[in-house]
Design brief:
The protein is of the alpha+beta class and about 190 residues long. It has two domains: about 5-130, Metalloproteases ("zincins"), catalytic domain (Zincin-like), CATH 3.30.2010; about 145-185, no CATH class. The protein contains five helices and six strands; from the N terminus they run H-E-E-E-H-H-H-E-E-H-E. It has helices spanning about 10-30, 90-95, 95-115, 125-130, 165-170, and strands at about 40-45, 50-55, 85-90, 145-150, 155-160, 185. It has a three-stranded mixed sheet with strand order 1-3-2. The radius of gyration is 18 Å and the shape is globular.
Length: about 190
């Protein structure tokens, strides 16, 4: 199925087709090292907090920055195990085209890290790659969070949470990745 024009995306299948084709263009034009034959695609109509996600198995001893020994995984035959890029329909409907494209580039970084290192995260390597691909570490929100945590030093966004959790309750024990400063609760329950 050929992808429709962006403004003509109507069905979940069209959303996947358009997003997959955009990601292939990014791989070709920006040198993203991703094997799409090992990527499955899905659309979530229930997600309210994440614009998209890469669902992948948790692998022992995997660490971002250390190429993973895929030969050690039964059945992998030296190749990364498949992962799934799950797109959120509500985010696509809320975002403009540039925000959706940035979201897809963000997810491509996760796929690239996973296929190389066996895991992924939002640490320094991700931030460097995000800058190179002109995307953010945090995707734009499309639903209002109940809690917003920021860095006490620079005010940068650390996390959005949609329910009470350990990070919200024990925020004084955590530090921001950006400055290493404590966390502040910028918005709580209203």
């Amino acid at each position: 199925m050929a992808p429709p024009e962006y403004d003509a995306v109507d069905t979940n299948e069209e959303l996947i087709a358009w997003s997959r084709e955009y990601c292939r263009t990014v791989r070709r034009e920006r040198g993203v090292d991703v094997r799409f034959d090992l990527v499955e695609w899905a659309v979530s109509t229930r997600a309210k907090r994440r614009a998209a996600a890469v669902e992948r198995p948790t692998l022992p001893d995997a660490k971002v920055g250390d190429p993973y020994d895929w030969d050690s995984v039964p059945g992998a035959d030296g190749r990364p195990l498949p992962c799934t890029v799950s797109l959120t329909r509500a985010a696509f409907e809320s975002f403009d085209r540039s925000e959706w494209e940035a979201t897809l580039r963000h997810e491509l970084i996760h796929v690239e890290q996973y296929q190389r290192d066996g895991t992924t995260g939002h640490g320094p390597a991700f931030r460097r790659r995000a800058a190179a691909l002109d995307t953010d570490v945090h995707c734009p929100a499309f639903a209002d969070p109940k809690y917003v945590l920021t860095c006490r030093d620079c005010g940068g966004l650390v996390a959005r949470r949609y329910r009470d959790c350990k990070l919200v309750r024990e925020r004084e024990r955590y530090r921001s990745d950006c400055c290493g400063a404590g966390l502040a609760l910028a918005r709580g329950p209203e």
